[in-house]
Design goal:
By secondary structure, the chain is of the alpha+beta class. It is built from three helices and four strands; from the N terminus they run βαββααβ. The longest helix has 18 residues, at 15-32. It has one domain: Alpha-Beta Plaits (2-Layer Sandwich). The chain has helices at residues 15-32, 58-67, 72-79, and strands spanning 3-11, 36-44, 48-55, 83-92. α1 runs antiparallel to α3 (72-79). Keywords: Monooxygenase, Oxidoreductase.
Length: 94
C-alpha cells in the first residue's frame, strides 16, 4: 500500500509553544481529518522544523488542506510557526 506524505519545512523560534501545542494538534487531526495516519516532527538546525505527515490518499491530504486551522489545537500549533520554508507532497513507496 502506498501512502501520501506531506513534507512541511518551517521556521519556529518559540520551541516551548510549538511543542506544547503539538499533542492537541495531533488529537484534532485524529478526530477531524479522514485518512490521517501519523505525523513525525523533526527538529533541524537554525529554528527550522520538518513535519512529516502521512495520509491514506492524496484526496485525504487535499481535504485536510481545505479545512486549514479549523480546530483550536490545530490553530495553536499553526500560530507557533513563524514562517513556511517549503511544503511538498510525495508518495511513500516502501
Amino acid at each position: 500500500m502506498t501512502t501520501t506524505v506531506e513534507l512541511t519545512r518551517f521556521k519556529a523560534a518559540r520551541t516551548d509553544e510549538l511543542l506544547a501545542a503539538r499533542p492537541a494538534m495531533l488529537a484534532d487531526f485524529a478526530k477531524d481529518r479522514a485518512g490521517f495516519l501519523n505525523a513525525r516532527l523533526v527538529r533541524l538546525p537554525g529554528d527550522e522544523w520538518l513535519d512529516v505527515v502521512e495520509w491514506r490518499s492524496p484526496a485525504d491530504f487535499a481535504a485536510s488542506r481545505e479545512k486549514g486551522a479549523n480546530l483550536p489545537g490545530i490553530a495553536a500549533f499553526f500560530a507557533a510557526i513563524d514562517a513556511l520554508v517549503v511544503a511538498e507532497e510525495g508518495t511513500r513507496e516502501d
